[in-house]
Design a protein that fits this description.
This protein is an alpha/beta fold. It contains 5 helices and 5 strands, in the order E-H-E-H-E-H-E-H-E-H. It has a 5-stranded parallel beta sheet. Helix 1 packs parallel to helix 5 and helix 3 crosses helix 5.
Length: 151
């Protein structure tokens, strides 16, 4: 099982359409579950991150094999990301990706999770990043299965 824990709801229909398309494509390869948690207003960022950390900890299960998607994580190419997915699903059968809110994630969550990867040094809207993550997961399965898609 691949789970994606993310904070906040997606309001824009174009993001939802893209997410639905990649979820449909991924059904052929693996079960994907998206868990949307409540994000908190950023009037007090530290307090919001603390509340969001509690939500994330409640959503994590002992067998989840969490990977934090973090701008300061280890950069991965698409091929490296595919190898990570293949290896982790072989050894753990579960991967849980965590996408923080627009404020990121708390220091507590960063300290709890050993695996941190970065897709880019750029900052993306967290709604768009869900689409990017699903596309890269899809690309990974195409690579793993030696199917045409990846260039």
């Amino acid at each position: 099982m691949i789970k994606i824990i993310c904070l906040g709801k997606i309001k824009e229909s174009f993001y939802n359409q893209a997410l639905e398309e990649y979820q449909k494509r991924l059904k052929k390869y693996h079960e994907i579950e998206i868990i949307e948690l409540k994000d908190y207003p950023d009037t007090n960022i530290e307090e919001a991150l603390k509340k969001e950390a509690e939500e994330i900890k409640k959503a994590l299960k002992p067998k989840d094999n969490p990977i934090l998607l973090d701008i300061n994580g280890i950069p991965k190419t698409s091929l490296e990301f595919a190898k990570l997915i293949e290896k982790d699903l072989t050894t753990n059968s579960n991967i849980t990706f965590i996408i923080g809110s627009s404020n990121g994630v708390s220091k507590e969550i960063k300290s709890l999770i050993d695996k941190k990867i970065s897709f880019s040094s750029l900052t993306f809207p967290h709604q768009l990043f869900r689409v990017i993550l699903l596309e890269q997961i899809y690309r990974s399965f195409k690579i793993i299965n030696n199917e045409q898609y990846h260039k």
